Amino acid sequence: MKVTILGSGAAGGCPSINRGWGACDPTNPRNRRLRPSIMVEQGDARILVDTSPDCREQLLNAGVRHLDAVLFTHDHADHIHGIDELREINRAMQAPLDIYAGTGTMDSIRVRFPYVLGAVEDGQSIYKPMLVPHVASGPFTVGGIDIVPYDQDHGYCRTTGFRFGKFAYSTDLVDLPEDSFDAIAGIDVWVVGCLSYDPHPTHAHLDKVLGWLDRVKPKRAYLTHMTPSLDYETLRAALPPHVEPAYDGLEICV
């Protein structure tokens, strides 16, 4: 299995309009971060997680013209507002595309983007996304990849993490329920959100994430959803050997 980090930044990216580069060295390309998203590949199967506002650039960077499914962690803008870019995938595939999300997220998509779930009339060109909704209420399989969704606490709402075999992806969380720790037990690789050095009401900070890693004990871990307060080299120097900051374009073999 190969996992590609398409975006490792927080909601504002890095540099952000407001904070610029912050503490990040602008000469280091690993500090230039698009909004959070990953791609999971195994054999011929290819799964996108989240459609960030940078989705077009991310799919072009990765050379993507085919997807087997898109998974959504939640409905915040930095994770879903690139959904219209999936029209180009529909056009390239000449077929609808399956999407998976928790109940609340799927309800939000139906309200905010109702047109993406409707069929294109016979004889019409593909003028809008053609997405087939599936509620991720339990384990499911896409292209031979077994996927286990699990609940996450995002402070004022819930998000969904996803386990793919020995790999798990957790972004936008400040805590994990006990059942979710059970769901990711035994993973080898964990990509997990780490907003900054300081505590935050909706996102985990570095000390909390390191505590989770001591408990879960993956062989390798990568930090994502990072603000401009986290310079790549400074953060890497402070981390244990098996933990690294993620960066855009990073490919992880699981």
Question: What key attributes describe this structure?
Answer:
single chain, 254 residues, alpha/beta, Metallo-beta-lactamase, Chain A, seven-stranded mixed β-sheet, 7 helices, 14 strands, 21% helix
Order of helices and strands: EEEHEHHEHEEEEEHEHEHEE
Tell me how many strands there are: 14
CATH topology: Metallo-beta-lactamase, Chain A
Please state roughly what percent of the residues sit in beta strands, choosing from under 5%, 5-15%, 15-25%, 25-35%, 35-45% or over 45%.
25-35%
Count of DSSP helices? 7
User: Gap between N and C termini, in Å?
Assistant: 5 Å
SSE class? alpha/beta
CATH superfamily: Ribonuclease Z/Hydroxyacylglutathione hydrolase-like
Radius of gyration: 17 Å
What is the percent of helical residues? 10-25%
Oligomer: single chain
